[in-house]
Amino acid sequence: MSALTELYKEIADCRDCELVKHRTKVVPGEGPEDAELLFVGEAPGWHEDQQGRPFVGPAGQFLDQLLALIGQKREQVYIANVIKCRPPQNRDPLPREIEACRTWLDRQIEIIRPKVIVTLGRYSLARYFPNEGISKVHGKARKVGDFVCYPMYHPAAALHQNSLRQIIEADMLQIPRVLDQLAKGAEVPAESQQLSLF
Ligand code: URA
Predict the structure, then answer these.
(1) Using an 8 Å Cβ cutoff, are 27 and 45 in contact?
(2) Which helix (H) or strand (E) holds 61?
(3) What CATH class does 25-183 carry?
């Protein structure tokens, strides 16, 4: 059994926070174990909770369109969330729920070791840059520990605010360049610095 499949079994048995009482299905994440890109959203919504799969509702349809812009299909990338179970009424995840779920995403990342972690929205951004606002840091690759993070707005934001659509699309279109620069061995700025190359 693959390391990810074993991890999914552990996640399915998780009872570490009260969201277990509300969920229909746990949504661990999906994608290849050797994915170069790992996208991290916030938490499952209604559709995801029904199907046990991440980003399968309206925000997911937009994410699929965004991936198509860079010639990627969802099967080629890894898609996960900060929180693996749907909060009731889609409320914001609570700090204790985020903390309880923390280890699962850490372990997914350790197994996959993606080239770039793309954070979608403020909850996944906060995991890597707790003191940064999305409007300042979106579209800028930064090194965090062993990994390169690339913050983006959440695709659902464009569904509520049309003006963000172009920004999200433009940020997505930069991702192949980031991968290309990494392949060439370019240095990525650490934490709060920014390099024009990226
Ligand atoms: N929004 C998220 O953050 N994640 C999903 O899986 C779906 C919608």
Answers:
(1) no
(2) helix 58-69
(3) alpha beta
- Whether the CB-CB separation of 33 and 3 falls below 8 Å is answered with yes
> Which of 55, 86, 90 for a ligand 1 pocket mutation test, highest count of atoms within 8 Å of Cβ?
55
Of ligand 1's atoms, which has the minimum distance to the CA of residue 123?
3
- For residues 120 and 87, the answer to whether their CB atoms sit within 8 Å is no
What mean pLDDT comes out for the span 158-182? 96
Sequence spans of domains, the chain: 25-183
Percent of the chain with pLDDT over 70: 96
Whether the model pTM is above 0.70: yes
- Check if 44 has its Cβ closer than 6 Å to any atom of ligand 1: yes
Q: Does the C-beta of 43 come closer than 6 Å to ligand 1?
A: yes
